[in-house]
Each structure stands twice: as C-alpha cells, then as structure tokens.
Fold this sequence. Notes:
With about 400 residues, the chain is of the alpha/beta class.
Amino acid sequence: MKTRIEPFVHGVSMLGLKAGAAVMPLPWPRTFEGENPSIDLCRLIIEKKRKSVLFVTSKTPVRTGLVQPLIDELEAGGVKVTVFDEIKPDPTVEGIEAAVKVLKENDCDSVLTLGGGSCIDAAKVIAARGRNDKPILKLTGMFRVTKGILPLYAIPTTAGTGSEVTIAAVVSDPVGQRKLPVMDPRLMPRAVALDGKLMLGVPPHITAATGMDALTHAVEAYISKNALKRTDEMAVEATQLVMSNLETAVADGKNVEARQHMARASHLAGKAFTQAGVGYVHAIAHNFGALYHIPHGRANAIVMPYVLDYSLPKCAGRLAKLARACDMGELNDSDDTLANLFIERIRQMNKTFDIPTQLEELKADDIPRIAKAARQEARFTYAVPRYMSQKICEKIVGKMLVA
Ligand SMILES: NC(=O)c1ccc[n+]([C@@H]2O[C@H](COP(=O)([O-])OP(=O)(O)OC[C@H]3O[C@@H](n4cnc5c(N)ncnc54)[C@H](O)[C@@H]3O)[C@@H](O)[C@H]2O)c1
Ligand SMILES: [Fe+2]
C-alpha cells in the first residue's frame, strides 16, 4: 500500500512546488558577458562606491595571475582590496570562519569572489556571516539568512555548478562528516561576470567533470515536472551549448570561444535548475560524493545514463526534444529512438572523457543506505518524471557496481 501512496503524495507535493516556483520572484544577478566582463564587474563595484572589498579566492588563480588585474582595477578606482586566498575545495565551517575574521578586521563592506563552486559557496556564506552574527551551522537549512548578505559579486572559473545563480551554498562540517546546504534566495550575488578567458587553465578532467555537472542540471531541469516555459528555454540552450562545446573545451583548453560558451551553459543551467529542480541523478551522486569523495560532476556523469534509461518511459518526448534541439537523429525517428540516441550520446561523452561506466569505490553493502538517502533527498522536493521505490533505486545503483 505504502508504495502506491508514496508516488501520489510525491505528485501532490510537486504540484505545490511548481505553483511556488512559477510565482516566486528570484533576485537574479546582473550578468556581464562581453569582451572584458570581469573588468566590467570591477567597474560596477567602483560605481556602487564600495569602499573595502574582501576578495575571496584560492591559491591557483592568484598564482596564475588571474587576480592581480582585478585588484589593480579596483584599487585604481579607490576601492581597498583585502585578498583571502585560502579557500579549498568543499569549503569547511572552519575555513569560512577564518575568512569572516579577515572580513571583520578589514571592515569590508562587500565581497568579490573568483573561483569554482567552492569559492563562490564560501563567499556566499562569508557575505551572509557579515550581516548575521550567528554560527554557520545556524545558517544551514532553509531561509535562515534572516539579515541578508553583504553585497556579493562573483566570477566563476569552472563551468559546472552554476553556483553564481543558485540560492544555495554547500558547507562541509568535518566534525559530523556532513555536507550541509544553506538555502536562501538572499544568497544570490548582486552581479556576476561570465569570463571564459579565466577558465583557460582548468585541467581537462576538471573541465569534463564540471561540464557534465552543467549538462546534468540542464537535463534534470528539462525533464522535471516542475519545468516552466522559461526554464525550458534555458535548459535547451544550455544543453545545446554543452553538446557543441564541452569536447572542444576538454581537448583544447585554450579555446576561448568554447570556454565562453561553457560559462554561459553552466550559468543558464544553474538558472534552470534553481527554478525547476534536479532529480535522482543528483540525489544518487550526492551520496557517492559524501561516501567516497567522488567529485560532484564526475559522480553525476556516471549516474546520469542509468537514471535516464529508467526515466525514459515517462519522459521520452522531453528527451527527444533535447535530442532534436541538438541535431541528433533523422527527421522521422520516433521519440523513443531519439531519447535513446540522447542517452547514448552522454555515454559516448563519458567514454571520451575517461569517465567510467561503473564506480570502482562502490561497495555492495552500501547500496541499501545509498538508495535510502537518495530517495529521502528526492522525496517531496525533486519533481522527477518517474518515481523510484527503494527496490528499484537499489537495482539502479547496483548497476554501477564493478562486477
Ligand atoms: N551552490 C550550489 O548551488 C552548488 C551546487 C552544486 C555543487 N556545489 C558545491 O560546489 C563545489 C564544487 O564546485 P566546482 O565543481 O566548481 O569545483 P571546485 O570549486 O571545488 O574546483 C575544482 C578544482 O578546480 C580548480 N580550479 C578552479 N578554477 C580554476 C582555474 N581557473 N584554473 C585552474 N584550476 C581551477 C580548483 O582549484 C579545484 O581544485 C562543491 O563544494 C559542491 O558541494 C554548489
Ligand atoms: Fe550539480
């Protein structure tokens, strides 16, 4: 009986979420693309008369010379810049608190960040702590950034998470060995720059994994039951951009055009999933990340073909539309044929990127708890096209076991 009621309750809850997403206004950031978007962003900070900026980044961008031109621009405009370059992948509560100390010591009135999702997430929480005098763990959860955040400006250097347009920041709590989200529309940056030139040094395996994360956002947002006309447009464009640029960006990292297209793809996919949500690919992949420390995009890439295979009977038409938008198949191909071509294309991209079909780290004994946690994450929040029972979820995760 339970198995019959669960999908029904899930469906009703999704209708509520969809109605909410359709009317909820989100404070989207001003977005610079153009010739020199990161300099344009600095000029905006000067124009807004910010006096003291905390520049949140990590060692690599400083070492590779990405940071200095922006500092020069800001200082020439009379803005004091304090650099905090200690952010590590998957930022921790402690690491973020160290930056908050520097923010306060330097009376910073705003935060600028340049880096991957880890830097942007850290900067969101630092900016939130600038206004909210409470421990970070009290900011985690929904709508707990009650006093808003200091003005935040973001320049992504990976094309993947879309964190510059999401209402979330993920912090790691090493004490409890957990990853905790802070979720609040007030985390949204004021303005962002999409600057492919800053991504030229990202190594191929990171370009591939982060790019597959962006593709997962686009696809899961598109097949979501919460998809809206506006999220469809963004998800389709993002999918097209990834399909026509990711292989080039991985093989020829210095190709500015491919990098710029990927920056836009990640941004659009981020906007799409912020409204339409993600699905079981993310729900399962998050658990691979938490248990085995598999990079988020790589985990998504491994899981995606299996979840799409399972979802196909309920979303063949949607996957076929994505396939058509990417010029796959022939004019008279059926939806099923096109949907399968689309999934096959993802398998082929994984192969090109040396992303395996199975997860070496996966242990058979872990499968029940992975399925349980993934289902719990998805339950009543992810508008998935085809519901999974515990048994089915275990079966799907089991397909990723190395035989
Ligand atoms: N806020 C959200 O909505 C959201 C969504 C999904 C994931 N996340 C979080 O984002 C983080 C992952 O972000 P990510 O995938 O962008 O990876 P990341 O920020 O952790 O960076 C991955 C690696 O790329 C390197 N790198 C970044 N920019 C570079 C550059 N220009 N040149 C050379 N190397 C560079 C970094 O040093 C790092 O080693 C995780 O903590 C995850 O939990 C956030
Ligand atoms: Fe993701």
